[in-house]
Specification:
alpha+beta; CBS-domain; four-stranded antiparallel sheet; 7 helices; 8 strands; about 35% helix
Length: about 220
Amino acid sequence: MTIRRLITRSIPALPPDACIEDALECCLAHRLPYLPVVQTHTLVGLVSEECLLDAPDEHAPVASLCTGRPLTIPPDLHPFEAARLMAEARLPLLPVVDDDRYEGLVLQTDLFTVFTALLATQEPGAILVIEMAPHDLSMSHLAYIFESQGVRIRSIASEAPGRLDGPIRLTVKLNVTDTARLRHVLEHHGYRVTAYYNEDMTDEELDFRVAAFLHYLEV
């Protein structure tokens, strides 16, 4: 998967001689804090809504506000790498350039949609957060435990330790909603389940929540 299929061409690029007033209207219309400035398929730069608002002359060309070379990405980049660059640059979008030819934009919202699908967030199932020491991480062993309990992994994501000797944290999306037995087996094998979500509630838990909500309404 590459970002090529995420390129949006519906957001118009501004010509260098577009006036600041028109550029600001375009920013507001598309609800974007940045817009590309392009001349004959060549990216001149990005212009920000903030700079447009602060410009002293609303009739000046937007090219006068473009300084430096903007960060760009190639169309064959993986979405993970695009997201990393976007986060480092603190930009909600990145222009895509292929052999010096401007192709369009990749938006943060479109990347989020891809990650939602990759992590199976829309699929039913429980989520477990598991911690372990780095030297105890064995994906094959974890997979064996899940399979031995008849559980299938829909997605898995890892979080690096916050410190050198800290634990690794895995967030696992499963195809089941009852993980009581699985959590017990994981703990037995030395894995620490620090949180779990989307579990089926027992009748007692449901009655307790309903009673608490009714009490809240009475208050």
